[in-house]
Amino acid sequence: MLKIEGIAAFVAVAEAGSISEAARRLRLSKSVVSERLAEMEKTLGATLLHRTTRKLTLTEDGAAFLERASRIVHDVREAAADLARRRGTLAGPLRIAAPVTFGRMHLGPALYPFLADHPEIELTLDLDDRRVDASSDGYDAIIRHGLIADSRLVAWKLARSRRLLVASPDYLSRHGRPASLSDLENHRGIFYTNRGVADWRFQGPDGAVVIRGRLAFGVNNGDVIHDAAVAGLGLALLPVFIAGPAIGEGRLVEIDVGYWPEPEFIFMAHPEGRNPSAKLRAIADHLKKIFGDPPYWERGS
Q1: Domain of life of the organism in this record (predicted)?
Q2: Sign of the torsion formed by the C-alpha atoms of 248, 226, 287 and 110
């Protein structure tokens, strides 16, 4: 008889690519995950994973079994969550990925009261600035700032996000204050490398305009971009939720070049074809309410 614990262990290992990572996600020891896999393979009479010292890969049988196994695990979790809903509670595991800076500054503080009100939800929040794959990395949802380019995701808008071109007073005193788009070509820029290009994108009366900047510093984290701008390394295009406090304190200055940066949004997105759970919808609704429209970090800015 197959056990749901063994199926869940197999799905976690297949999604994580390693027993160690699967054990971390399941909050179990590696030995327990290995034992559950071995017991399930023995029951099925099939090898589901090729094991080497460097990686795990699915066998042909494993690949065939994974689709239904994933559905079984999802359905069992949702059945348990449905029972909890009938009792008037939200319960069960939930795994979400989000950017580091937004997670630290705004997402975490917004989630704490929700989790206190729903103690049976088991939320794992992974803060990571890389563009994770929501489906293959085993996330119920991802939260991102910008645009969702992956067509396999269904996105819910949580809040709008206004960006500003900023620099430190020290940088502007040394290099001058740009007043037009053409002036930007003579300035050094600090760029978010996860976007893949060193450019500034603006909107004007005639549509979008792209200005290629001179790279002073590239990094994949919003906190470090903020700090580099405050340190006077160059111009940076930062969302108000990051730059707002430094502008208020005078450590950064907003720069007006006659055009406005392209608008962006804070999104929650879940894999297409996967029915979002009630607890995921509840978290999204809570975040929309907490962030507000306009979001609280932009009021008065």
Answers
A1: Bacteria
A2: negative
Q: What is the DSSP string of 111-172?
A: HHHHHHH-TTEEEEEEE--S---TTTTT-SEEEEEE----TTEEEEEEEEE-EEEEE-HHHH
Report the predicted TM-score, pTM, of the whole model to 2 decimal places. Answer: 0.73
pLDDT tens readout for residues 30-51: 888 888 888 888 888 888 888 7
Q: Is 187 helix (H, G, I), strand (E, B) or coil?
A: coil
Question: What's the pLDDT at 244?
Answer: 95
What CATH number labels 163-261?
A: 3.40.190.290
| Euclidean distance between CA atoms 228 and 59, whole angstroms | 47
Residue found under tokens 């997670």? 103
Nearest CA among 33, 30, 65 for reference residue 46: 65
CB 229 within 8 A of CB 167: yes
Q: Which residues pair with 121 in a beta bridge?
A: 92
All residues at 6 or more sequence positions from 152 whose CB lies less than 8 Å from its CB, including other chains: 135, 271, 272
CATH 1.10.10.10 assigned to 4-85? yes
pLDDT at 168: 98
pLDDT, position 248: 94
Each residue of 215-248: pLDDT tens digit? 999 999 999 999 999 999 999 999 999 999 999 9
